[in-house]
Predict the 3D structure of the following.
Amino acid sequence: MMKSAFFIFYCFLGSFSLLNAQKLESYKLEKLYQPEVSDQRYLAWQSESILIPLRFDSEDKTPVTISQTGIDSDLTFYLLHPVWADFSAGNCGETKTNGTFQKTQIPDRAEKLTETSFTPVSNEQWVLAKIDVPSQISPGIHPFTITFNQKGKKYSTKGDLVVLDRKLGQLMPSDFYTDFWQFPISVADFHQEKPWSSNHWKAIDEMFGQLAQINQHSITTSVFWDLYNTKIRPAEEMMIQVRKEKNGNYSYDYTVFDRYVELGLSHGINNQIAIHNLFPWNNFLFYKDESSGEVLSVQAQPGTSDYQAFWKPLILDLTRHLEEKGWLSKALFFIDERDPSQTLALIQWVKSFVPQAEFGFSGDFYPTLSPWVKDYSMPMNVVVEPTELSSRILHAGTTSLYTSCFEQQNQPNLLMTSDLREIYFLTQLSQSKGYNGMLRWAFNLWSNGILDDAIYSDLPSGDAHLVYPNGQVSLRYLVLEDALEELSKLKAVAQTKGVSDMSAAMNRYFLINIESDRYQMIQAMKNYLND
């Protein structure tokens, strides 16, 4: 009898504990896999957006309805889906493949809710609230409440929106740009669509729309299938279809290339057309051999006779085509992390027969290479002498910062395991260095299971993607949008005393390696902009 009574009491306590465990709370926009509760005070300019991570703790999986009071503005909500990630920053290629790394699920895949309701997918369901502060809202404190209603039970979190008497302006790509390299073939493969089919083009159109929202300034094109061409595919899937005729001459079909560029231009991405594959990592060149009907490859280093016999007619014909389309002034050949001496020799060879050809380069900074490179992107730990940067500005060159898988866990990055504050730091660091923008090597290189699992065999999680299939973005993408708003604030107060000092402080070299000091700097800048 005593055991039975104890069991009933134990069950009652369990039910009571579960009931108390159901709660809604707002958190800081930092590491959501190690969340810290927010102070629920949000400073904002008029026309600014505010991002508020919310977590709803409940084992109940019945639908939840969202409502809000206190702000005369519609809120946008995103359901944040957990995606598997690993803590492998600083490990690429074999070191990643051969290593063992801690794994966790991170709320990163952001599904925009079209209705103010959702069904939880986990016991700790993350939701992101985005407040678009009205342009005409009165300055002052605006208390608000966000409420989740599940089966008639209401769970609320309160906050104060503190609106300053300042209005946010638009940040143009000419003020600060991003350059995310696109992988359209990866999009087709994930959706199991034939490349360049009607459904594939719809997905590409959606991709360019997402890129335009974050100040993308470059259309990533390739001669073959993508930037790295890890396997041979049908010639019809090439972006520029290269064919070797039976008489030994080459011919080129630009149909896909043209449509891809035109689609990017239609979304306002019109500063640059970057053409890859001139100096590929694996040195393979591909073409459709009309005699055999097969796609053949040849491995040839720049400077060799095989290389030059393949590329010279292609470059000449492509230059003619770009000129006819009116795109030549936007186009450049992009070379990624290759030997500087070979790169310089290659550039000089191309310019010997196409003097107007332009080039982009990502890698360490080489003063001898810089005058030949119109678009130069380099790691954040590279220090460029002021005279070198002034020379680039004088000659209308653009300079950007990039991060990759090589940055260590304590260094800023855009990985899924990165603290979200790092995105604000990287954008502001780029600007404080006097650069024009920021580059990332992959916008949408997806694995088959990317919706739930971003653990790659050779890359840290998040290194290869900023968005997800089906039009869904990442939390990191939304934070990047917000970080660009912070740059817009900097632009607005650019003439104010003290801005240059704050910006110079952001460029202190040790901040790259000391997280605590870096986060203090980010907060100091935020306080300054909202003072």
Summary: The chain has a mean pLDDT of 93.
